[in-house]
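S., here's the first fold you wanted:
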Amino acid sequence: MRAVKAYLEVRLQRVHVKRGERTVLRAIDWHIRPGQHWVLIGANGAGKTQLLKLIAGAVWPVPERRPLRRYRWGRQVRDTPYEAQDEIAYVGPERQDRYERYGWNHTVEQVIGTGIHRTDIPLRELSAGDLRTIAALARRLDLTVLLPRRFLTLSYGERRLVLLARAVASRPRLLLMDELLNGLDATRHTDALRFLAATRRSRLPWILSVHRPQDVPTGATHALILEAGRIVFRGPLSRAPFDRWFARRARLRRTVLKAPSRRRARMLVRLTRADVYLDEHRVLSGITLTVHQGDCWVVHGPNGSGKSSLLRTIYGDHAVAAGGRIERAGITPGVPLEIFKRRVGLVAPHLQADHPRALTVAEVVQSGRHASIGLVEAPSPADRAAARTALRFFDMGDFATRRLHELSYGQLRRVLFARAWVGKPALLLLDEPYVGLDAPTRHALIAHLDELIAAGTTVVIATHNREEWPAGATHELALSQGAPVWCGPIR
């Protein structure tokens, strides 16, 4: 008879955590038992990710406070996470970013298989039993068609669900999911919620951090709410003050500002019959569009439709295949593409992986004036002044000296907005720019973008959510499987 798996029980008491000189978690007292399914709620910077990392053993509490961090499974009891770390599966943006950073571009089947063998990269052949396990998980998450694809050719949302399948394949004793539902289109979002709802009777404990009430799965049993690093609620889900807490989040108020005249607007970018391939997989097919100065294009479509690939093609990261063409204002044969990139501001998920975590916020923003990752030379007085102005505009002036590793995912996204705007670019390319943001931060950034568009900034933005379309949007491109469904003025 197969032995019943002993799941993890975790106890935290008197836990404080510092990042740099700042205390990010205070007096944490939390008991997680097998069979409990927790949702973890809090604003950007509240400490959600640090709390999950603490449980996983990636960060350590302040020893002077005599913290207790106890792990129990079966007859095993440990006061450090060392022995338990291999039994904890973690799904989150930082794990996802590692694939981009290190160029781990294995097939989806291989990536899920690394979960079975608990390795970062494939180190052995997959057995027939492994392949059956992978196929079953792929069916549950509607990933079967992606199994032969290379991981880095997937969309942001597709990658997230592949990593969930990888985590579950490891048969963990505890599952941690940091903003799992970010970046998912409506169909993928439903798939993920259905998957979590199916765990309702499972003894596997899990924790899911969320920002929105629609992200709370029906399989959840308990809730913990963090504010400024402190627990303000901990208990059964039925008693959680969701209505009161979410009602306190700022509501979006849109003001449609008058846009400047667009007479004789010059062309900034033109694509003609553009096809784009990544690792021999066609991600864009037959794209023809022209972005004029003052335009605001909204690019939308499901996960995997090619939105990110289009923006990175415009920016210059991907090439157009023979038979198609891309033209950029001022870029003629012999003129370096870097000249164009310095006139463009970019916000994209992969940039959060590209920047070294030891950089300061000011250094990251200053690098935007040179379209570089980090600074290749000391910043000029003009670089410093422009960075201060951009940080103030995006309400990040007090963060200039902080290191990236001290920031939450949402705070880092605001830094990328400031970096994109620091050179007052002719064109802003925004790829799912509001992913991972709490409601007040998201609404503030939407209002800032509306203001910039009204002042004449040209924008191409990719987004899943209709409420995130800029008030001054002029054109839309609807994509499906890399091909245009609609391309023209806003319908």
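And the second, which I think is the more interesting of the pair:
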Amino acid sequence: MTIPTKIHIISEFKNTPWGGGNQFLKALRDYLRSQSAYSENIEKAQIVIVNGHQFGGHLWQLFYHIRTRKNLALIHRVDGPMEVVRDSKDNRIVDEAIAQFNRSFASATIFQSSWSRDLCITHGLDPNKPHVVVNNAPDPSIFYPTTLNQSSDRFIKIISTSWSSNWRKGFDIFQFLDEHLDFSRYQFTFIGNSPVGFRNIHYIQPLPSNELADELRKHHIFLQASHFEACSNSLIEAINCGLVPVVRNNSSHPEIVGDSGILYEGIEDIIKAIDSAAKGRFSFSAKTSQKITMAWAGSAYLNFAKEVSLAPLAPPSLYEYLVTWVKWKMASRPDIFFRLRALIGNWQRL
């Protein structure tokens, strides 16, 4: 079989400020275009990459192409598990839909971190299906270090970003710092969507990537406060802009940061971690030069796609298509699913 050179990505691309997956996949698409390895339509592609749970509106199209084109392979890019990351039982249905799609449609899986891979397998993904771990990476034309000398800045400047306003993105930490950080020494900026108001933290609405990167380069320290992340794009963007990462010691954060930043456990030691980062920020900044690049991530995706093309999965049956579609519909409206399940349970007890 001829090794493929054309990949098509199925995702709900947004050109406005959006989540990390959207930003990474846009950058990956640009990289594949630069390597003449991207197809703008599925008909001319030998590999299709599908992102997470964004297969629903394309399910019949995928079913048709996989059934009629025996040399087409599908790579499923997975994060989560959603139930863990978002801390909601409703997302258990999303994880079940993702696992069903992965079993029936995917030739192989790309996980965004080893932490996410291990936990996704415990939530139903097949450990024997070909897979690889590839961390996310940002667009290098946008996220790059500053060339300015910041050693004479009056304040140590901290920044955090989050598209999601989910409380588990670390708003317990942000609220605590808003009240207890020494603002005679530090400045703190939060960019994104917040469920709470701030008194001392400077708040900025979500920004397009170019403007976000400009803001990142004005700061010294990036604070990642999320309770769980499969692979934080915001963290990797900040590292690529040369900021010292201060990250919660959980999920994929230690895996991403390595020895180029400071780990902390929670409210009890966050200020100590920030002080340590401020004291050693120049030595830590030198370590962030060993950053995760799109050239590395894009090459890993392309090489894995070539391997996967040599052993495409047997096409899904009509039954598997229907089961996957039903689970996706349930994931789209978990409120209806849980009401139906409660009604069935009540009926069975009669």
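Why I say that: Residues 7-137+295-344 form a domain with the Rossmann fold fold (CATH 3.40.50.2000). The chain has a mean pLDDT of 86.

Talk tomorrow,
H.
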